[in-house]
Amino acid sequence: IKKIAVLTSGGDAPGMNAAIRAVVRTSNYFGLECYGIREGFNGLIDGNITKMGPRSVSNIINLGGTILRSARSEDFRTEEGRKKAFEQCQSNGIDALVCIGGDGTFTGAKIFNEEFGIQTIGVPGTIDNDIFGTDTTIGYDTALNTAMDAIDKIRDTATSHNRIFFVEVMGRDAGFIALNSGIATGAVDILIPEQKDSMEELFDTFDKAAKRGKNSSVVVVAEGEKLGNVYDLSEQTKKKYPNYDIRIAVLGHIQRGGSPSCADRVLASRLGYGAVTGLMEGRNNVMAGMRSNKLVFTPIEEAIKKHNTINKDLLKISEILAL
Ligand code: F6P
Predict the structure, then answer these.
(1) ipTM of this predicted complex?
(2) Whose C-alpha in 58, 168, 260, 306 is 20 to 30 A from the C-alpha of 83?
(3) Does the predicted model carry a pTM greater than 0.95?
(4) Average pLDDT over residues 111-123
């Protein structure tokens, strides 16, 4: 390979810039040309592609978001869109792609690779941590710390006012952020899609908390929780306990922003480096991940299809320590 192009796609995640920097600088180190594609697969379709050198990624390792911008491309879902993208690869002489993103990004990358054969490697960048083949994804650690800081603040005011707070954290289909930020902030209960929850169990927790003299409580709820969203949960709780003073906080997109943590910067640097060296070794249609502190490559198909499981010990610990 001679020319590598890098893009970020799907929901942005803190540390994506550190990954872009690593891809560009590693390419440069090994004498490969590197191109940046702007706005995800849309930029590939539209030819929004610029040459990048070591200086185009100066001072970005500490920046949140992605300097290449991101998009969830509808056009890339169509055969016509992908054909245009391939034509752009051909006219720009791009022979390998590094796609930084989550499962949507990888699905697109895999289809494109299978249709047109452009050598492709994925780098897991999503705050959700829902990608198989890596212990953690880029952005997850930062998002956890952002959620933890926010919930700590909510706890202050919950305590002052003897209130119950339902706090929604991100995680469309996964409870990693909820479980870990919930443990770190001493949440009385944590509701995640991977576990079957019931209102009765939640009420039981409230009753136990009251018996043990707790005057305030924070319940951390993953966005993808099946029992209901924070509004439904709050309404049902109010019906059962009319005297409870209940409030809701939806942390939302603040969890996606901010300067990446040290762990995310290091992870992104290692995976960006791993993606380029992986391509040079001829790896294709795989994702670079970090497992037990080692660089590993997982077929993209597996990374999308399989799921990292929630640690059941953590769930148990959260229950024991909450009350
Ligand atoms: O996949 C990352 C994520 O932040 C999810 O946790 C969340 O459900 C989703 O993206 C939000 O997407 P958008 O920014 O398009 O609203």
Answers:
(1) 0.97
(2) 306
(3) yes
(4) 98
